[in-house]
Design brief:
The protein is of the alpha+beta class. The protein has one domain: Alpha-Beta Complex (Peptide Deformylase). The chain has 3 helices and 7 strands. The strands form 2 sheets. Strands 1-2-3-6-7 form a 5-stranded antiparallel β-sheet. A two-stranded antiparallel sheet has the order 4-5. The radius of gyration is 15 Å and the shape is globular.
Amino acid sequence: MAPYQIRIFGDPVLKERAADVTDIDGRLARLADDMIVTMHDAPGVGLAAPQVGVQKRMFVYEVPDGDGPHTIVNPVITESRGEWVYDEGCLSVPGLSFEIVRPKEVHLTGLDLDGNEVSIEADELMGRLFQHELDHLDGVLLLERLDKVQRKVAMRAWRERTMGLDADRLDRSHLL
């Protein structure tokens, strides 16, 4: 069973900017481990700390065919290039996905759980994952990336999807 329940759209914690991490210690490592279990249980490929109610600037991720789960602390995107449209979902908006335009390539910097600097050039899915998780750290949900018409359609779909349904029973495929 997942150690955390993933917060969903409507929870005010998802609208707040997360605080910088000042101490990388055993408690943060345990949080990361629990977030990885929660992410796998969902299932998803990325999970930001605010999605489990923790206002810290960190996220965990694991992409298919990757080299295991990773944690990035105090991440920053320092460069971005290009444009890529992709059908993007979110564990905090379960059961729905939307075509969203984001930069195709990004350069992410941050720290790992040992306090070492991390610098990653990422494109397509990995780049999108990083941008999506940073949005969570800034209190932005993918619904805010939609234009006015798309957002209206999305909100109608969200209401229809969640009226009387348990969020744990919703389809969670393609979720970041």
